[in-house]
């Protein structure tokens, strides 16, 4: 079971709408499955001229994230996530961070097998 | 003298103007430099193949995993997120790297050395009686053109007349192409797109403090809003190339445009003397 799940979000709260972009989402809302709590990680990607995706991967690794829920992931970020052993699931129909996490836990989300952005 | 032929909008006639200017001047010591390295076409227009090809590389980091302790300092330093430090290795994304060397310089364990990464070639062709053509050609899939543009422009630096056939747009590639030029000739067309992108180009050359002037290509009797822009910005209209389906047809067939439109010779000679006048 993953211990830390990062969900791409437009804001810092579990009730925030999800953000379909990976590297350039505004926040990663991270669910800590052991502590049973959320934490918000502000993403520097929206302001990055280059390498928003790879930078986001590095930030998630520093925070010990082992699973990502996002909608669209570019080729470089995907390569880095795969090499790091992180699983990536598509947000699907979920509207908020909480919904996305619940859908994942209910086994309703599809795993991404290739970059799609 | 170095004259950059730029435009803003693509397809306005940069290559037409620069290749014809070279032919009209007919100086054996002149150099035409095609810095539209993603799709160079001056050689196609002049029907010249490369006689000499030089490879160009730039430096990218290579990690010695035996010395590396995965501290993450390099990824922290990199302004372009070109390095990702994982639990057991370091990923290097060459296409993101800007060859600044900071990671290698600042690695606490000296575990990073810089190695050459090929980015493209410089092709050289001797033209019949009107100089030399230098073409930068970027490798397919390579994202950054400025290092190759810089390398191509560094060749034959002492030639008395250098004409740069620039890439379109106002991005880094255009800026690298026009920088260090004595004059920037902006080729435009009387369309809303031509006008819009010309305004951006004028801002760029103003920031670089390069004197410039306009050539209106496909001119149909009126300067229209380009006249107002010229008045407002102070960049003069140096010449007008009339709209001509015959010229376009001949150009597409690889024929000499100066034969299809003999008046073009006078138009370009006049433009060149106006540039010389500004620079003297």
Oligomer: heterodimer
Low-confidence stretches of chain A: none
Number of domains of chain B: 2
**Biggest interface, residues from each chain:** A-B, 18 and 17 residues
Q: What's the CATH architecture of chain A?
A: 2-Layer Sandwich
Assigned CATH superfamily of the largest domain in chain B: P-loop containing nucleotide triphosphate hydrolases
Q: Using DSSP, what is the number of strands of chain B?
A: 11
Report the total helices of chain A: 3
The CATH homology group name of chain A:
Dinitrogenase iron-molybdenum cofactor biosynthesis domain
The strands making up the biggest β-sheet of chain B line up spatially as 3-6-7-2-8-1-9-10-11
C-alpha termini separation of chain A: 27 Å
User: What's the helix-strand series of chain A?
Assistant: EEEHEHEH
Instruction: Determine the strand fraction of chain B and express it as a percent band.
Output: 25-35%
Global shape of chain B:
elongated
Portion of residues within helices of chain A? 10-25%
Computed CA radius of gyration of chain B, to the nearest angstrom: 22 Å
Strand order of the largest sheet of chain A: 3-2-1-4-5
| Overall average pLDDT of chain A | 93
Helix content of chain B: 25-40%
* Biggest pleated sheet of chain A: 5 strands, mixed
Describe the structure.
With 117 residues, chain A is α/β, with parallel strands linked by helices. Chain A has a single domain (4-111), classed as Nucleotidyltransferase, domain 5 (2-Layer Sandwich), CATH 3.30.420.130. Chain A is built from three helices and five strands. Chain A starts with a strand and ends in a 12-residue tail after the last helix. The model of chain A has no long low-confidence stretch (mean pLDDT 93). In chain B, helix 7 (192-207) links the parallel strand 9 (183-188) and strand 10. The termini of chain B are close together. In chain B, the strands form two sheets. In chain B, strands 3-6-7-2-8-1-9-10-11 form a nine-stranded mixed β-sheet, with helices on both faces. In chain B, strands 4-5 form a two-stranded antiparallel ribbon. Chain A binds chain B through residues 48-55, 57-58, 61-62, 76, 79-80, 83-85, and chain B through 72, 75, 78, 80-87, 89, 91, 93, 95-96, 98.
